[in-house]
């Protein structure tokens, strides 16, 4: 039996065919046959989540400091409006990305099940 030594070794057909470890890893993670689209989604999602958290922190900072920096009342209102807009669009973006990921996973699952 071939020994799995490298992280991408399970993608090698010769090793994956002979290795029960590769099958066990796929069973535990629920991983299906990889595709470029699936790899892209898995790579992009953490970055989008991190960016969303940073944007929400920035919006919270704008909102909480709106009246405390000695600014006029009108600029405080503008900062609050800007903070609310950032929160709204950030949450909308996260929702769109989550739905896109869900749709991609469903389509890949259906294509994978039809192909078997």
Report on the structure:
It contains four helices and no strands. Helices cover 76% and strands 0% of the residues. The protein starts with 12 loop residues before the first helix and ends with a helix. The protein folds into two domains: 1-31, no CATH class; 33-115. Helix 3 runs antiparallel to helix 4 (73-115). The protein has helices spanning 13-18, 20-29, 36-64, 73-115. It has 116 residues and is mostly helical. The chain is elongated and about 65 Å long.
Give a quick rundown of the structure.
By secondary structure, this protein is mainly alpha-helical. It has 4 helices and no strands.
User: Strand portion, in percent?
Assistant: under 5%
- Kindly, what is the distance between the CA atoms of the first and last residues, rounded to a whole number of angstroms? 26 Å
Structural category is: mainly alpha
Provide a count of the helices: 4
Estimate the global geometry from the Cα principal axes. elongated
How much helicity do the residues have?
over 70%
Question: What are the key terms here?
Answer:
2 domains; 116 residues
Map the helices and strands.
Blueprint: H1 13-18, H2 20-29, H3 36-64, H4 73-115
Helix pairs in contact: 3-4
